[in-house]
Design a protein that fits this description.
Layout (H helix, E strand, L loop, with lengths): L4 H4 L7 H18 L5 H25 L3 E4 L2 E4 H22 L6 H21 L5 H18 L4 H20 L5 H16 L8 H19 L2 H10 L8 H7 L1
Antiparallel strand pairs: 1-2
Helix pairs in contact: 2-3, 2-6, 3-4, 3-6, 4-5, 5-6, 5-7, 5-8, 7-8, 8-11
Length: 248
């Protein structure tokens, strides 16, 4: 009935029909083949993709409040808020209905918050239909981390709070554009939040922060002398998501 603009209102170039089966293959490999007990993660990931993504398109198209540009595309604050809130609710519902019995209120709430943050960032950064892949991967990373070490639920949420603060500060002072700030937030969460599970932690964060701040400050120094060179460069000193990914 063409009620969901996320599926039927696409008038731009999209790889969504390619990204979706790729996402399914990744989810099957990580959440079924590798460990059949993680099927609940697969269910939750596709629940968020199936409902939050079209809801964001619907709300953004109808409300249209707070338009902004990120990664070369126009988004609305209303649509992004609808995605984040619904993703948190759906993730909490999925963990409550299908998650391990050992998960209590703290684990469910933590998982819902981290899923909302990572999946919302993935949806904002993805272009040309690739949110069908990146949203699913974001949910999988968040919930597999929680599944592997439920006692680290507080660390995952704390890392998310630090990542949000760092991304906001870097964007406000002009070190990063909006896409770069979102990507830096994801990177910061990965280094800090996944530290207790494998590698990372504050030691790794210190190295990354040292590189980030020194390179950003040096890029700002001597701006008048560098003006001609920056005019000939594809990108200036304000880094975007691609540069954050490469440097990270």
């Amino acid at each position: 009935r063409k009620l969901f603009l996320g599926m039927h209102g696409i008038q731009r170039e999209t790889w969504g029909t390619v990204a979706f089966p790729v996402a399914l293959l990744v989810a099957l490999g990580v959440c079924w083949t590798a460990d059949p007990s993680r099927v609940y993660v697969l269910r939750t990931a596709f629940l968020v993709l199936a409902l939050s993504d079209p809801l964001a398109a619907f709300v953004g198209g109808r409300v249209g409040w707070g338009a902004f540009r990120v990664n070369g595309q126009t988004k609305t604050a209303a649509g992004t808020a609808a995605f984040v809130v619904s993703a948190a609710g759906l993730a909490g519902l999925g963990l409550w209905a299908w998650g391990p019995e050992a998960f209590g209120t703290a684990e469910i709430a933590s998982g819902a918050l981290v899923v909302a943050g990572l999946a919302g960032t993935a949806e904002a950064l993805a272009t040309k239909g690739w949110d069908n892949l990146w949203v699913v991967i974001a949910v999988i990373v968040a919930l597999v981390a929680l599944d592997r070490q439920p006692e680290a639920a507080g660390v995952l949420v704390l890392a998310l709070a630090v990542a949000v603060g760092f991304a906001w500060a870097a964007w406000r002072v002009g070190f990063l554009d909006l896409s770069g700030a979102l990507a830096a937030g994801v990177l910061a969460w990965g280094v800090l939040g996944l530290g207790p599970l494998a590698v990372g932690g504050w030691g790794w964060a210190a190295a990354g922060l040292t590189f980030f701040f020194t390179s950003s400050v040096l890029s700002k120094l001597g701006r008048r002398r560098k003006r001609d060179a920056e005019a000939r460069a594809a990108k200036g000193s304000r880094r975007d998501a691609g540069q954050v990914a490469a440097n990270g």
